Amino acid sequence: MADRTAVVTGASGDIGRRLVPALQARGTKAVFVPSEMDLSVAWEEFHQLLLTHVPKTVYHAAAGRKNLESLEQLSLNSAMAHHICMAIAKLPRDQRPVLVNLSSAAELGVVDDKLDRVDENYFCSPLSAYGRSKLCQTHVVLSLAAEHGFRAICARVFNIVGLGGKKELMFESWARQIREMRREGGALEVGDLDLVRDFITADQLVDFLIRLGEHPTAYGLVNLASGQGILLREAALALRKLSGFDFEIREQKEKFGYNPVRRVVGCTAKLEAILGHSIHFDLKDSLRQLLTT
């Protein structure tokens, strides 16, 4: 029998469906928040769920869809975070779980190109409705945790590789195009390749989320990043080499639009200080796995 219980919001989402079995593999009982429980409306029902199961950790992986209107998305993500925090705050102090909130590097916005790595103290100016809603969610969680005296961790997640699910991410899109080219020919259509990004795998994301949630003292905003800056042009060339056949890489900046965020690499000093080690991202291994999926 599991001696530790965790509650997971968004358990049917791309991250939640990986998080639940990973928790169970560690001997943790994972309690799903029912889909009919609307966390954006009120906190009382979620509070009752916490009273029933007495979890050590709550992993908040639910989020509003990225295609929502700006104000609707901001309101939804902020309301969910607020109600989860209030449900925790209303518990007896000795029953309050640690809240692990999934924040996003989309919160950062434009970063100075000369900045080698972005730490948790960087002033954010998000460029998208999604980024603004996630930044607001992060502030809601950290401020309410401080006000009501419970521990909260906001894991700022950088670019994920191998997540799967409904939304196709960049490297997954490239790998799919290459599989189609094997049958039909053509070129790999990409956007601006002169961008530098920080990547982690889906498995690393889940592993480090759980490590942070189980750590006895971790709190506050923490970058979930590798600290490795990868030029997208190098990634595209590596993918072509790994595929075993030659094809044109067609850069279509006009189609995909100009991206003012030229370089974003996370500082991992805080993550290393908490857990004793950081995330190592193996680009070639990750790309190889995408090609064989």
Explain what the structure shows.
The chain is α/β, with parallel strands linked by helices and 293 residues long. It has two domains: 4-160 and 200-224, 3-Layer(aba) Sandwich (Rossmann fold), CATH 3.40.50; 162-195 and 229-262 and 283-292, UDP-galactose 4-epimerase, domain 1 (Alpha-Beta Complex), CATH 3.90.25. It is 41% helix and 17% strand. It is built from ten helices and twelve strands. α3 links the parallel β3 (57-60) and β4 (98-104).
Could you give the count of β-strands?
Answer: 12
Strand order of the largest sheet: 2-1-3-4-5-10
CATH topology of the largest domain: Rossmann fold
End-to-end Cα distance, whole Å, is 35 Å
Which residues form runs of ≥5 with pLDDT under 50?
A: none
Look at the structure and give the mean pLDDT: 92
The main pleated sheet reads as: 6 strands, parallel
Structural class: alpha/beta
Work out the count of structural domains.
2
Summary, kept brief:
Helix content is 41%, strand content 17%.
What is the secondary structure topology, with strand pairs?
Elements: E1 4-9, H1 16-25, E2 28-32, H2 44-53, E3 57-60, H3 70-89, E4 98-104, H4 129-148, E5 152-157, E6 159-161, H5 170-184, E7 188-190, E8 196-197, E9 199-201, H6 202-214, E10 220-224, E11 230-231, H7 232-243, E12 249-251, H8 253-256, H9 269-275, H10 283-292
Parallel strand pairs: 1-2, 1-3, 3-4, 4-5, 5-10, 6-9, 7-12
Antiparallel strand pairs: 8-11
Helix pairs in contact: 1-6, 2-3, 3-4, 7-10
